[in-house]
């Protein structure tokens, strides 16, 4: 019973990570850009949702605002800064996006203050539901799992079945060629970047309802999303999905089960501390194992193109 | 070494740092001496990273790991020495220490070992992967430090007495500054010698054209790993000095902001230039101090400045001073 609940928690966590990692891996894959400021867009979405929900009283409007605000912030940043970085080396990209984090974080602190904001769920989404087997589970976490699955399907459809998806895949393969064929690359890149930003902002708004909305909330998630992308392989949406679920499950189940497993060998107190410490590094061990077996990631075409 | 413009700028930067500290000491301004010491320590960390980043082209976003390990080794040894308990009894007894000359090699050894493991795994990848993997491993240590309560966990670890150095009073700010600056100078000479050696030339060749280096019969992996380990050891030493400066270590030394800052020192000054990180670190401390007085949100201003440097002055401070980019 506990195991089923933790597995659902892991699934929900994995779905959140997928929303973050999908945008990162798209931007890596299509533009070859490492974007540290992706976590800031996640934060921007959460703050937009909190502000709009507080002003209008409607969580759904807030959720819509998170998508719009993060996409707009993404497009703005892409046009103002990011597009100058495509031709630069990764070092310049890391540094410029690190600088963007500083600007975003301090700007948000200036606008909203240092105190965390809280989002309240609408009554229709709060409360628990009875699952088959007699398990009570928070409805909203199920909704997040549903959202994540819907986004995964939607992205797959977008990439595999639409004209925009064809252009994105073509842009990954050969950017000069699709430029010569008459595709406006600059606009395509802005769209891809804004799409990734919107997904990150959406994830931020959803997580903001479970945790609090505060400055710096995006950074731990960003690093986990990096781990997901490394495990899944750069540029692969499928890899991001599998990687996110792996990381989400490993982290949640590790934290839930390790202390219990270790307590069979040691006394409870030391099993708890060692278990907690081990659980916190478990996903990085997972990453190391993947790196040793497949340096290009589970679904990657080739390491670091 | 001929006295070209780079050399003049390098010497001028060091002279300026020393002159600032001595001037402040004469005026009785201990706070400024401590700021200069901080600049020297951060400069040392930058010099370490520069070996991997500037000369080796290895964009490590995880050097806080080595900085923090150096710091934690110092803190752990010092706290055990104060409590009179051994650090470990198995497989052999390790006692605590409050002698800098004993602590530094331990800090560098621990950081070097960590760099060996992290480097061996990370160097299997390159490009964007390398950045993310080094970042992730540093973050792993960060979370480990937070969740491991033995040495303070999230709260960090204080030790109340600065470790000692034979013949010097390490509590006097100017004497501690002298220790840190001497180590910085040693690291600079070491970097200058290493980058001119066969090893250093091979390292730079591997950065410029990996395939051609392979064709010449040099295996980049071993060379890069060596550079990564040396780089980690220097940064570990800087971490040890930083712990002693504050008499405090905390997981913040391992956080990715620290990695970013060390990287910023290198970039502000100019990538792959000998004294670039020193100039960058000094400028960073100065900005922190000046902008921090202007606004509580000084990090936003720093971010904008950094953005401007990346977009419009890719050679960094020394690039501006010497009027030309480092020939890549």
SS class of chain B: mainly alpha
Q: Outline the low-pLDDT stretches of chain B.
A: none
- Please name the two chains that share the biggest interface, counting residues whose Cβ lies under 8 Å from a Cβ on the partner chain: A-B, 45 and 45 residues
The best one-word shape of chain A is globular
Let me know the number of strands of chain A. Answer: 2
Name the beta content range of chain B. Answer: under 5%
What is the number of helices of chain A? 11
Number of domains of chain A: 1
* Envelope shape of chain B: globular
State the share of residues found in helices of chain B, binned by percent. over 70%
H/E series of chain B, N to C? HHHEEHHEHHHHEHHHH
Helix-strand topology string of chain A: HHHHEEHHHHHHH
Distance between the termini of chain B: 20 Å
Q: Helical amount among residues of chain A, as a percent range?
A: over 70%
Oligomeric state of shown chains:
heterodimer
What number of structural domains do the residues of chain B give? 1
What integer value in Å does the Rg of chain B equal? Answer: 19 Å
DSSP strand tally of chain B: 4
Protein name (chain B): Amino acid/amide ABC transporter membrane protein 2, HAAT family
Transmembrane segments (chain B): 39-58, 65-83, 103-121, 128-146, 174-201, 221-242, 262-287, 299-321
Pfam family, one (chain B): BPD_transp_2
Main location (chain B): membrane
Q: Which secondary structure elements does this structure contain, and how are they paired or packed?
A:
The complex is a heterodimer of chains A (305) and B (328).
Chain A: H1 2-31, H2 38-56, H3 59-80, H4 90-112, E1 128-131, E2 135-138, H5 139-161, H6 163-173, H7 175-180, H8 185-210, H9 218-232, H10 237-262, H11 268-293
Antiparallel strand pairs in A: 1-2
Chain B: H1 5-26, H2 30-55, H3 64-83, E1 86-88, E2 94-95, H4 100-122, H5 128-147, E3 157-158, H6 173-196, H7 198-208, H8 210-215, H9 220-246, E4 248-249, H10 256-269, H11 276-294, H12 298-312, H13 316-322
Antiparallel strand pairs in B: 1-2, 3-4
């Amino acid at each position: 019973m506990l195991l089923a609940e933790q597995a659902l928690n892991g699934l929900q966590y994995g779905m959140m990570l997928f929303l973050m990692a999908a945008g990162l891996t798209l931007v890596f894959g299509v533009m070859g850009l490492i974007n540290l400021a992706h976590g800031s867009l996640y934060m921007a979405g959460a703050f937009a949702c909190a502000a709009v929900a507080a002003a209008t009283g409607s969580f759904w409007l807030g959720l819509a605002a998170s998508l719009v605000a993060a996409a707009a912030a993404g497009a703005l940043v892409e046009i103002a800064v990011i597009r100058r970085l495509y031709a630069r080396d990764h070092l310049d990209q890391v540094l410029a996006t690190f600088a963007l984090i500083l600007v975003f974080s301090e700007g948000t602190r200036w606008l909203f203050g240092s105190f965390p904001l809280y989002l309240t769920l609408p009554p229709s989404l709060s409360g628990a539901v009875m699952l088959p087997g007699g398990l009570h589970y928070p409805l909203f976490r199920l909704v997040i799992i549903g959202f994540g699955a819907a986004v995964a399907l939607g992205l797959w459809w977008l990439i595999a079945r639409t004209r925009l998806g064809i252009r994105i895949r073509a842009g990954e393969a050969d950017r000069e060629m699709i430029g010569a064929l008459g595709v406006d690359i600059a606009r395509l890149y802005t769209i891809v970047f804004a799409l990734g930003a919107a997904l990150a902002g959406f994830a931020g708004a959803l997580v903001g309802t479970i945790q609090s909305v505060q400055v710096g909330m995006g950074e731990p998630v960003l690093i986990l999303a990096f781990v997901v992308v490394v495990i899944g392989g750069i540029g692969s949406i499928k890899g991001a999905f599998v990687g996110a679920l792996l990381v989400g499950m490993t982290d949640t189940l590790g934290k839930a089960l390790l202390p219990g497993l270790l307590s069979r060998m040691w006394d409870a107190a030391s099993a708890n501390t060692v278990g907690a410490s081990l659980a916190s590094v478990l996903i990085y061990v997972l990453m190391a194992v993947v790196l040793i077996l497949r340096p290009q990631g589970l679904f990657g075409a080739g390491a670091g193109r | 070494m001929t006295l070209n413009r780079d050399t003049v700028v390098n010497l001028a930067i060091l002279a300026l740092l020393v002159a600032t500290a001595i001037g402040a000491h004469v005026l009785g301004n201990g706070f400024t001496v401590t700021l200069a010491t901080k600049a020297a320590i951060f400069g040392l960390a930058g010099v370490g990273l520069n070996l991997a980043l500037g000369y080796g082209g290895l964009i490590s976003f995880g050097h806080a790991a080595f900085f923090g390990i150096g710091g934690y080794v110092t803190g752990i040894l010092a706290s055990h020495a104060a409590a009179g308990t051994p650090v470990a009894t198995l497989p052999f007894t390790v006692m605590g220490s409050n002698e800098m000359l004993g602590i530094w090699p331990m800090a560098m050894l621990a950081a070097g070992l960590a760099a060996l493991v992290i480097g061996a795994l990370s160097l299997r990848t390159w490009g964007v992967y390398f950045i993310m993997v080094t970042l992730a491993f540093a973050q792993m240590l960060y979370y480990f430090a937070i969740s491991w309560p033995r040495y303070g966990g999230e709260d960090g670890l204080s030790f109340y007495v600065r470790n000692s150095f034979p013949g010097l009073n390490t509590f006097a700010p100017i004497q501690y500054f002298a220790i840190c600056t001497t180590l910085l100078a040693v690291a600079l000479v070491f970097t200058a010698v290493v980058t001119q050696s066969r090893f250093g030339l091979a390292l730079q060749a591997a950065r410029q054209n990996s395939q051609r280096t392979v064709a010449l019969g040099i295996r980049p992996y071993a060379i890069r790993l060596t550079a990564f380990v040396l780089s980690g050891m220097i940064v570990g030493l800087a971490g040890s000095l930083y712990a002693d400066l504050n008499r405090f270590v905390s997981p913040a030394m391992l956080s990715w902001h620290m990695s970013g800052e060390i990287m910023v020192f290198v970039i502000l000054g100019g990538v792959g230039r000998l004294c670039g990180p020193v100039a960058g670190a000094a400028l960073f401390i100065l900005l922190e101090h000046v902008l921090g007085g202007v606004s509580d949100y000084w990090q936003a201003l720093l971010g904008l400045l950094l953005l401007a440097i990346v977009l419009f002055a890719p050679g960094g401070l020394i690039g501006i001073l010497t009027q030309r980019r480092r020939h890549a």
